[in-house]
Amino acid sequence: MQLVRYSYTSRATGPLDANDLLQLRVSAARWNDLHGVTGLLVFDGLRFVQLVEGASEPMARLVDRIVADRRHHQIQVVEHGDAARRQFKGWALRTCWREEWPGELFLAAVKQAVAHCSDAAVQALFIGFGCVPG
Ligand SMILES: Cc1cc2nc3c(=O)[nH]c(=O)nc-3n(C[C@H](O)[C@H](O)[C@H](O)COP(=O)(O)O)c2cc1C
Q: pLDDT under 70 in the chain at which residues?
């Protein structure tokens, strides 16, 4: 299987409360699970950073779904292309929201979420994002 990886940052178009985030997490994880996609989504209250990875056909559909979603905008693609191995094996969608991890716990939670990644660039993307003050 050709593995494709897509990562980006974006900004929320409006406020998202705990319920909105729960809905997003549940429906996205369900779709990813059904389509063999894995990944991590981090939200700091204003901005998202996400990496998703999977077979090329479901990934093409997923990128379209994500880009069309009006809950966020200003998508800046970090990487979109072939990848050698998964970074979030076993996680249909791991999530990390700042509101669940106040203060310095947020950065610690982000570090924990990427601790097992074999690709240092992926770790740097998420940890760099986690370092930006909320
Ligand atoms: C920041 C962000 C990340 C998302 N990540 C995923 C994802 O990993 N998998 C997924 O299936 N949907 C994800 N979505 C949600 C889809 O974009 C959205 O729920 C879907 O396009 C709705 O389509 P449908 O209700 O017509 O099926 C994400 C949305 C946002 C705003």
A: none
Domain count, the chain: 1
> Per the confidence metrics, is the pTM higher than 0.90?
yes
Nearest ligand 1 atom, CA 30: 11
What is residue 57's predicted lDDT score, i.e. its pLDDT?
97
- For residue 62 and ligand 1, the question of a CB distance below 6 A is answered with yes
* Domain, as residue range, for 125: 3-131
Q: What one-letter code names the amino acid at 113?
A: A
Mapped onto helix, strand or coil, the DSSP state of residue 44 is: coil
Beta carbon of 59 within 6 Å of any ligand 1 atom: no
71 CB under 6 A from ligand 1?
yes
10 Å CB burial of residue 31 (0-12, 13-18, 19+) is middle
